[in-house]
Write a structure and sequence with these properties.
Distance between the termini: 29 Å
Strand order of the largest sheet: 1-2-5-13-14-15-16-17
Structural class: alpha/beta
């Protein structure tokens, strides 16, 4: 292809990696592990790392969703000094190394709750129906709740805000009698937030001590924390945990605060885990399209297709966020919540994982997020090896080098689909991807007249042979049964890197 005067330089494709899985060892060495991996990950085309929650949790075994202190990044002697992931100095070194390598860091912000309180406080509550949190099932009475947060190890450093019962809307344990329930805390004007998901009547309460963002001290402290965090570790984005459980109104205000206090250009994504496309698109509209969401319906489609005989691959994107809001959809195959033995586990058969990764990495729509556990394996009592025979990074590399230009879809047969990317003037190589969830198969696909006479081979090494592009720009591209092939000109720049990173 020849550049014309009005053509712009083609921007690179970006890929995110969730840089942890649930069972990463609690050895306080994970920041160091990631620091050592950054250069290799960048070489494969991974440009941004979603790191685990780096704030102090209630124990060194917790993954950080049991958050205790926003202002302790593994610096103070409270609940141990280091977090599960390491000490603050290791975190700072990781962020510095990543920045030098051109890799961005996305922070996992846990803003819905607090855990590991320093003492109990007495407050008035009502118990609510777990399946309809708008319905009280007791009269008001007093409990001793773990709701007092003094942060004695940190003292007044960074923030002098302490937390008391009136900073929360709910809790789940009465220390006076050992009873577990969902307790809505009472007070002047205090109630569940109106700006949350309506599942279970009102889904404000999730776990631990539930923060009340109508309290001005809570709002001010969390907003101050975001600017403080950027001063400690210069991140490029934030993944917000459990956003359907706390005030959308507050989160809109926080996004505006980030733009004014730190500056615009943040990448912001929320965990709004819903199979309702309507609810997800409404949330994106409410956030004025400044916010992305993880495509939960796509994950469930992958799971359903992989567990159904002769499933119709042409329907893989039906009802998904990436089909409806491609710019605001973060596509994924698995994460720490959907991995095996977790609360939202979505079983995806091993043969289907490479198909799923090709579908998120090699197409034009969506911002793909690959999973640490699929690249490095899953630890724990029931470990799993890396998925896709170790080819996830090769597909990331194919995205980085070749997945550019016009996309032509061949979703014309239920058990075998494909597409091509035709390349651009400055990223000219293009690719052809074909997959089957049944026997060996293939299809004729157009890759462009510019490629006529070229000899293409499978970058993954699973499909054998060569394809010579004919004079009309077409080739017949095949794949093994229950597999995928990614065909590229065998002379394309970067082909020598496959299988080596």
């Amino acid at each position: 292809m020849i550049q014309t005067s009005n053509e712009d330089v083609t921007p690179p494709n970006y890929t995110m990696m969730q840089a942890f899985e649930w069972y990463v060892p609690a050895d306080q060495k994970h920041w160091r592990r990631l620091c050592g991996a950054v250069l290799g990950l960048k070489a494969t085309g991974i440009d941004n790392l979603w790191i685990p929650p780096g704030c102090k949790g209630s124990s060194q075994q917790g993954n950080g969703y049991d958050i205790y202190d926003l202002y302790d990044l593994g610096e103070f002697d409270q609940k141990g000094i280091a977090t599960k992931w390491g000490r603050k100095e290791d975190l700072v070194q990781l962020v510095h190394t990543a920045k030098e390598a051109g890799v961005g860091i996305y922070w996992d912000a846990v803003l819905n709750q607090k855990a590991g309180a320093d003492r109990v406080e007495r407050c008035q509550v009502v118990e609510v129906d777990p399946n309809d949190r708008t319905r009280a099932i007791t009269n008001a009475y007093e409990i001793d709740g773990w709701l007092g947060f003094d942060f004695p190890g940190r003292g007044e450093a960074y923030s002098n805000q302490k937390y008391h019962w009136y900073h929360f809307t709910g809790t789940d344990y009465n220390n006076a009698n050992g009873r577990t329930a969902i307790y809505r805390i009472l007070g002047d004007g205090k109630n569940w937030s109106d700006f949350v998901d309506k599942e279970k009547g009102n889904y404000d309460y999730l776990m631990f001590a539930d923060l009340d963002y109508t309290h001005p001290e809570v709002e001010a402290d969390v907003k101050a924390w975001t600017a403080w965090l950027y001063g400690q570790v210069p991140i490029q984005g934030i993944r917000f945990d459990a956003i359907k459980h706390y005030s959308e109104k507050f989160l809109r205000s926080l996004v505006e605060h980030l733009d004014t206090s730190v500056g615009p250009g943040w990448f912001l994504v929320g965990e709004f885990w819903q199979d309702s496309l309507e609810a997800m698109t409404a949330y994106i509209r409410g956030m004025q399209h400044k916010f992305s969401l993880f495509d939960a319906p796509l994950v469930y489609n992958f799971s359903q297709l992989s567990n159904t005989n002769n499933a119709d691959l042409t329907k893989v994107f039906d009802g998904t966020l990436v089909q409806t809001e491609p710019v605001n959809a973060v596509t994924l195959v698995m994460n720490h919540d959907t991995q095996p033995y977790q609360a939202l586990a979505a079983d995806i058969q091993p043969f289907f994982k490479p198909l799923a990764y090709a579908l998120i990495l090699l197409r034009a729509e969506g911002y793909p997020c690959v999973f640490y556990g699929d690249i490095y394996g899953i630890k724990g009592d029931l470990p799993y090896p890396p998925s896709c025979d170790g080819k996830v990074t090769d597909m990331c590399l194919a995205r980085k080098l070749y997945a550019y230009g016009e996309q032509r879809d061949y979703f014309d047969y239920p058990q075998c689909i494909g597409w091509t990317r035709l390349g651009t003037w400055d990223r000219p190589f293009g690719l052809a991807c074909v997959m089957s969830n049944a026997g060996p198969n293939g299809k004729w696909m157009y890759v462009g007249l510019e490629h006529k006479g070229e000899v293409w081979t499978d970058t993954l090494g699973w499909a054998q042979g060569q394809v010579t592009i004919n004079q009309d720009g077409w080739g017949y591209f095949s794949c093994p049964g229950g597999s995928v092939a990614v065909w590229v000109n065998q002379q394309a720049e970067g082909r020598e890197q496959f299988g080596k990173l």
